[in-house]
Amino acid sequence: MPVTSRRGLLFGTAAIGAGALLTACTSNEPEAEASTTPRDAADDKPGKRVTIGFAGPQADHGWLNAINVQAKQRAESYSDVTFVPTEGSNDTAVQIGQIDTLINKKVDVLVVLPGDGKALTQAGLKAMRAGIPVINLDRVFATPQAYRCWIGGDNYGMGLNAGRYIGEKLKDKPDAKVVELAGIDNLELTRQRTQGFDDALKTYPNIRKVARQAADFTVESGQAKMAQLLQAQKQFDAIWNHDDDQGVGALRAVDQAGRDGFLMVGGAGAKSAMDHIKADDSVLKATVLYPPSMAASAIDLARALGQSKGISGISEAEIPTQIAVFSAVVDRSNIDTYLPTGFN
């Protein structure tokens, strides 16, 4: 994904969470720039050197790999940032040890995407107590005391927007049926995506969700679970698939079964999904973004913290405590806008 302006990352792809109670100002007019804020608005210029530690899970998934790439590329775009990443791990004990190492190195700011937010909470608390501010990326710690700022995806909004999109497509169809191919059920994010989807469907009394299968965010699980859904449901009108990686397998199952007559909405924004949407060559007609550019924004926030700055576009002298990225729906009507953001 091309490196964009800092304002574009923070306020083009991100919306301030309700807990932050902040309003973004994106005007480029001179009057807007001449704000009476107690900070330097020209925060893209080199400043105090900042060492940013980065700890994330193993990049065994397209989205997670894109997270690592986004963070690294953004850090390298700043001449005043030293980037110290760990080798990603899905083992909680290993990731805690890696964070301990970064704490011992006395990095200025720590960016953490925990494999399990609740399990890594003590590591975040330890860093904060050591005087190292933490940017909690996506999977949230169990307490806000474990981070200075959280930035991540809006999982509820992701499901809500998928449900609204499907609802509008099927609103005039009597007794419409939908199915759901969820992610990993023991993750809170999966439950939030399902809840958002279910809440959206409540406003469409003609639509019923008739089946749900949980997969594991992998191609193989997507194929196996989709095959089960197709076998059990001889007719339905739409499917909400939580993840584009498992969606690759789901589309294979659809092709193998020779099924059509329904639309599929994916999740995350993988390039493979966007290519199908652009070509209009499958049942996949849309995907709901979960943009990995949040990792680049996390580096922006970490640098701002290390340099005691706020962020462009808002009046506050400090960065907010919560930023939730917006889950836009991408279909053929806007695919050209979002296609460059697709990740492998």
Features:
single chain, 344 residues, alpha/beta, Rossmann fold, 2 domains, seven-stranded mixed beta sheet, six-stranded mixed beta sheet, 12 helices, disordered N terminus, TAT_signal, SBP_2_dom, Peripla_BP_I, Substrate-binding domain-containing protein
Task: Report what the structure shows.
Keywords: Signal. This is Substrate-binding domain-containing protein. Belongs to the bacterial solute-binding protein 2 family. The chain has 2 domains: 6-147 and 292-326, Response regulator (Rossmann fold); 155-290 and 331-341, Rossmann fold (3-Layer(aba) Sandwich). The chain contains 12 helices and 13 strands. It has helices at residues 6-12, 30-33, 62-76, 92-104, 121-129, 155-170, 188-201, 219-232, 244-257, 271-279, 294-306, 335-338, and strands at 14-16, 50-55, 81-85, 109-112, 134-137, 149-153, 176-182, 207-214, 238-241, 263-268, 284-289, 322-325, 329-330. A 7-stranded mixed sheet has the order 1-12-6-5-4-2-3, with helices on both faces. Strands 8-7-9-10-11-13 form a 6-stranded mixed sheet, sandwiched between helices. Mean pLDDT is 88; it is low at 1-42.
